[in-house]
Specification:
Blueprint (H helix, E strand, L loop, with lengths): L8 H5 L8 E3 L4 E3 L1 H9 L8 E3 H5 L3 H4 L14 E3 L4 E3 L14 E3 H5 L6 H102 L2 H25 L12 H9 L31 H12 L1
Antiparallel strand pairs: 1-2, 1-3, 4-5, 4-6
Helix pairs in contact: 6-7
Length: about 300
């Protein structure tokens, strides 16, 4: 892009610093208002194409850098070499002596390029490419929305399934705890019944002991003789009952289902997640850019060449 502030090239040669307001496309020079007026009246330059300097500044740099003067000879380009695909001045013709009929007047080659079919096609390709970019942008945005929604649905699916797993584990956990509590209650009840009866037997045996001590101190031999069999029978009955009360110990064991234990070992992932690149359902039509000839003026050159052959 040209500089935002340009000085008049003519005034600059006169060591003056006047801001430019116009640009001569034929001379590649910036002009102030006074020099532009003289430029338009001069016989040698009154037919030149002059544009406002701000329009020149708006040109892309690669366009603005295309000069109208030969960089080697500082002469205005007058011809175009079809073989070398370059503009040439009258001094360059000697270097293109072998090009012969492939050299055409530059004015004829570049005339009406803004209205040419190639320029029209190129303009259409730009518009088509803008439409294609817009469609592809919308397609990517839609895909982004779809990805976000799918991931959101995936997180909900994980959460919902986790709740189901939690609820199921809670249910079977409560079932096992209830079984454990019921077993504990039955064991406690059975053991407490035995303990209560043992306490009663202990008291009854203690009474027998007291009776024997009392008999020893106060009963007659006759009384002791006939009372001893009764006490012996009582002790025998109590011993038999004690033997009946004697039972195996209650041993409580708890085992976790192997399928649940396997979760901690075998289940390494909660699920599977993948991203696949699949062809888009949208089809984007190719522009006609491939039909545009990449060699400028080649169609015109071929036409001139065929005409010259005839």
């Amino acid at each position: 892009m040209a500089s935002n502030i340009l000085l008049c090239d003519i005034c600059n040669l006169r060591s003056l610093s006047n801001p430019s307001v116009h640009w001569c496309q034929d001379c590649d020079e910036a002009l102030c208002s006074n020099c532009e007026e003289y430029h338009a009246l001069s016989k040698s330059s009154k037919g030149h194409s002059i544009i406002p300097i701000n329009e020149y500044q708006n040109l892309p740099s690669f366009v603005a850098n295309i000069k109208h003067l030969c960089e080697k000879h500082s002469e205005k380009y007058q011809n175009y070499c079809q073989i070398h695909k370059c503009p040439i001045c009258y001094k360059c013709i000697q270097e293109h002596g072998e090009c012969g009929k492939s050299i055409f007047p530059l004015e004829d080659v570049v005339k009406y390029q803004n209205a040419s079919q190639s320029f029209h096609t190129l303009t259409k390709n730009v518009a088509d490419l803008e439409v294609k970019i817009g469609r592809m942008e919308n397609d990517r945005k839609n895909n982004l929305t779809e990805v976000i929604n799918r991931c959101k649905a995936g997180r909900k699916k994980i959460h919902d399934f986790r709740l189901k797993v939690n609820n199921h584990l809670d249910t079977i956990e409560q079932g096992l705890i209830k079984e454990l509590q019921d077993g504990e209650f039955k064991c406690n009840q059975k053991i407490k019944e035995i303990l209560n009866r043992l306490s009663e037997l202990e008291q009854e045996v203690s009474n027998c002991k007291s009776t024997l001590q009392s008999m020893k101190m106060h009963a007659s031999d006759l009384q002791v003789f006939f009372a001893m069999p009764q006490i012996k029978k009582q002790l025998s009955d109590k011993e038999n009952e004690l033997n009946c009360l004697h039972s195996d110990d209650f041993l409580v064991t708890l085992g976790i289902d192997t399928k649940i234990e396997a979760i901690l070992v075998d289940v390494k992932r909660f699920g599977a997640f993948s991203i696949k690149a699949i062809p888009s359902s949208k089809e984007f039509t190719e522009t006609e850019s491939r039909q545009v000839n990449s060699e400028p003026f080649s169609e015109f050159g071929q036409c001139l060449y065929s005409c010259s052959v005839r």
